[in-house]
Automatic annotation (TrEMBL):
<dbReference type="InterPro" id="IPR053781">
    <property type="entry name" value="F-box_AtFBL13-like"/>
</dbReference>
<protein>
    <recommendedName>
        <fullName>F-box domain-containing protein</fullName>
    </recommendedName>
</protein>
<dbReference type="Pfam" id="PF24758">
    <property type="entry name" value="LRR_At5g56370"/>
</dbReference>
<dbReference type="Pfam" id="PF08387">
    <property type="entry name" value="FBD"/>
</dbReference>
<dbReference type="InterPro" id="IPR036047">
    <property type="entry name" value="F-box-like_dom_sf"/>
</dbReference>
<feature type="domain" description="F-box">
    <location>
        <begin position="4"/>
        <end position="40"/>
    </location>
</feature>
<dbReference type="InterPro" id="IPR032675">
    <property type="entry name" value="LRR_dom_sf"/>
</dbReference>
<dbReference type="InterPro" id="IPR055411">
    <property type="entry name" value="LRR_FXL15/At3g58940/PEG3-like"/>
</dbReference>
<dbReference type="InterPro" id="IPR050232">
    <property type="entry name" value="FBL13/AtMIF1-like"/>
</dbReference>
<dbReference type="InterPro" id="IPR001810">
    <property type="entry name" value="F-box_dom"/>
</dbReference>
<dbReference type="Pfam" id="PF00646">
    <property type="entry name" value="F-box"/>
</dbReference>
<dbReference type="InterPro" id="IPR006566">
    <property type="entry name" value="FBD"/>
</dbReference>
Amino acid sequence: MLKKDRISELPDSLICDILTHLSTKKVVSTSVLSTRWRNIWLWVPNVELNSKTFPNVNAFVKFGDRFFDPIRVSCIQKLELTLNPKARTLDDDESYFTSWIEAAIKRKIHHLDVRLSKVSLRKKPLRLYSCDTLVYLRLYQVVLADAEFVSLPCLNTMYLDKNWYPREATLEKLISSCPVLKNLKIVASDLDTKVFRVHSRSLKTISIKRGRIVLPQYNNVPGVVIDAPLLRRLSIDDRKSESFVVKNLESHAKLDIYLSFGLGEMTISSFTFRLICRYSELEPLPQFCYMSDLCVAVHPTKLKQLETFLESCPNLKSLFLVQLGSYNYNPEVPSEEMNQEGLPSVPQCLLSSLQLVRFKVPITGVAGEMKLVNYFLKNSTVLKKLILRLDSRSAKDEILKELFEIPRGSTECELVIL
């Protein structure tokens, strides 16, 4: 006796909810179960379409045209669409793709992820600039058309990965026209030299990444301008921009700054610190009152610059120092800063909040490194732990003797040597 098929007795809406937890390939395979299941997959609100999973472009287009039939009125919650360069018709016509996007917008799409693999859609621009229901948008290697009007009233998260913009104003308008946008991530293409202007009264998190420009004629990149007064977290990983301007930043925002400017990988480079200190000679640096942890690359001879920045972090609790290496200077010729007997003041954080200092790169015992160690041990009155790692080539006995002779500003400080 055959068992009764209870699943088939469920209403279509409930079956579609169940099928949303399966891959599109498995969802479509249910169409062969019975006549009852033949067309149910067409009503599933989530779909993943990748042209690589089809035997040829005609099969891909035929499948997409059937799913995005404009006559159908069911809603689409999530669409992940990947189009590789081989998914081209003979006449290089990509109108089928734009019609799918337009159909998804009409069917009140919430989540849209488009990956085009350098396919140009300039012939017929997408209607991505106007969608009343879109909440999440990711675009990868899309050539965006210029837009005079943008309306994305519900967009909360936007991820722009290696796209091309006809003008600087295109990106600026796209971002500023999203009134509830909270999360923004931008990854620049290798050939993009435009200024990234981010103006938003709603953004809470921003992540910007720009790698090295591969062609020499694109060496000069103007930079980034950010004006987001509600920003809570800003992450910058940039290898090429010449400048960053951040306006109206709240004091409690968290900053993850990774600027190399050709000097290699680091959290905040020594060169960046020199620029900060030059700026501080013109006007006071902003106060980062809520900053508790800081990782910074600092040259052993630039103690004064480090002190200048620490004065803007009155509540800093943990400091991680990444030195650029003593090989960058001659230890027999101390710099002017290293010759100074004392500094005019001690940053507030050393007197009231700094509890941990860690040197993340092994020290060799040269004068500049020992001066940094001496500075924190002597002036940090609430320091609980200072962690060092000695270089295997260093004179360990001499370094240890010098370390334990340094006077401590904090009676609770533990010196840990790895």
